[in-house]
Amino acid sequence: MIRLVSAARFAAILAAFAAAPALAQDSPASSVPPELQGMIGDWNLEQEDVALPKCAITFTEDQAIGGWAAVIPEPCPAPYPVAAALAAWNVDPEDGSVLLLDAERHVTLRLFEDEDGLYDTDPAVVPRFYLTVPYDEDGAGGEADAD
């Protein structure tokens, strides 16, 4: 009897493992192209004066009008755009700039990649914003390492 129960348990475990790939295939694949997967996650919008407040923003892989949803966890102080104006993110295929869009596909911010690999708004536009990686508690982050 013990051997029969053990064999039945083993068969159930084996069946669960066999079903795992089929279950994994049922989950939807990300609609974010592989070359943009590194953009998914937490970012900060900052101003040139780092003493000024930052604006936290999360780029998700959830589809939204104009691209993928951008989430603003808490309201950002002026002069940052209001959360409704930062509803989605995308990348312009023509010039590689990061686009932050409102819910009607209007471009709120266009951030261009500079020579350091960072993204910032046009220097002629004031105030100027920078898209940075948040700093960890240990001080790591802020810039993408070239390693």
Automatic annotation (TrEMBL):
Protein name, per record: AprI/Inh family metalloprotease inhibitor
Domain of life, per lineage: Bacteria
Domain Alkaline proteinase inhibitor/ Outer membrane lipoprotein Omp19 positions: 37-121
Keywords associated with the record: Signal
Species the sequence originates in: Devosia nanyangense
Molecular function GO terms recorded: endopeptidase inhibitor activity
Signal peptide positions on this chain: 1-24
Keyword Mitochondrion: no
